[in-house]
């Protein structure tokens, strides 16, 4: 009979017959729970380590042990105190101490940035994306670090960039190349959004597994605790599955005129981008109650808005401001012309760049952080598909992008 059977988990006092049998069944339940939680912990593809405070390693999953070639945690601790012993110090990557702070402290104090680590397995260097989540168990503070191996993705990205540069140098079929680049950028943005959406749930699942293990070791784990943690983990997994469905549906190609309200489009965009915007302290402001009904290409307009919001998001990078809003405004003129503006307060566009921002391959971002395709493709979508125009102006505190097009009618 399965140990997940409610009758087995709850116990049937009529059948147990004796305290010895009750104790035996309790031990079986605890043993099963421990194995179940360990399977979840070890089943994570990412390297996951738990540190007391910020330095001393107290646990790690199977991916951690396999990567470094240790059979168990005591074997690792006999030679090392921290996974940071294996960090390869190189510009652009985490080291044990950064700006006078331990690497865990540095990540926690800079949640809006992406953090990367270089570590070696055999002769091969691996690139990891790192996140840290803090949990409290009893009086202990535990930091759970998740290391996601993105070596192949980085290699693919580098290869793709080299291929794009080669194609552009040949100047063959420029429009086709730029269209493909745009799709790659959209895919990269989508993967980035999914990564932000999944990071916290994955850490929460790991924290739940560690919490059960700790309670088990302290002799404080009961059947109700088991049910609570299993229900929580199942709920988290279902939410992660729904995230994938939402992204797939949103990015399906669909060039048909639809009737919709901007507030409804913005709710979908906010749902996709919420995690990465919140991590940077950025808030979206829009009027979800605006009654204006638009008839246009909904998904194409949504892709333009995502590009403009992402542009505003990047404009705030490195700026320490008390407030980082992005405002979306909608106005309909008497002649049925629609005006949509996207405003930020990140300082605006320099005069020498104002006439270049919609040019292909023009970017003000550091090398490797921008392609100069997003705004160019946004202008093409507005002009060629929405049959409108887009312009950029500076306000007193930032930049404003204004999209203008005629409201269509569905007949």
Label this structure with key terms:
globular; 5-stranded mixed β-sheet; 411 residues; Beta-Lactamase; alpha+beta; 5-stranded antiparallel β-sheet; 14 strands; Heat Shock Protein 90; 13 helices
Describe the structure.
By secondary structure, the protein is an alpha+beta fold. Among the domains are: 46-149, PAS domain (Beta-Lactamase), CATH 3.30.450; 253-406, Histidine kinase-like ATPase, C-terminal domain (Heat Shock Protein 90), CATH 3.30.565. Helix content is 48%, strand content 22%. The protein has 13 helices and 14 strands. The chain has helices spanning 6-10, 13-16, 19-43, 62-68, 73-77, 103-109, 151-170, 174-217, 223-250, 262-279, 298-315, 351-354, 374-385, and strands at residues 47-52, 56-60, 97-98, 101-102, 115-121, 124-137, 140-149, 257-261, 282-286, 293-297, 324-332, 337-344, 389-394, 399-406. It has a five-stranded antiparallel sheet with strand order 2-1-7-6-5. α8 packs antiparallel against α9, α10 packs parallel to α11 (298-315) and α11 packs antiparallel against α13. The protein is globular and about 85 Å long.
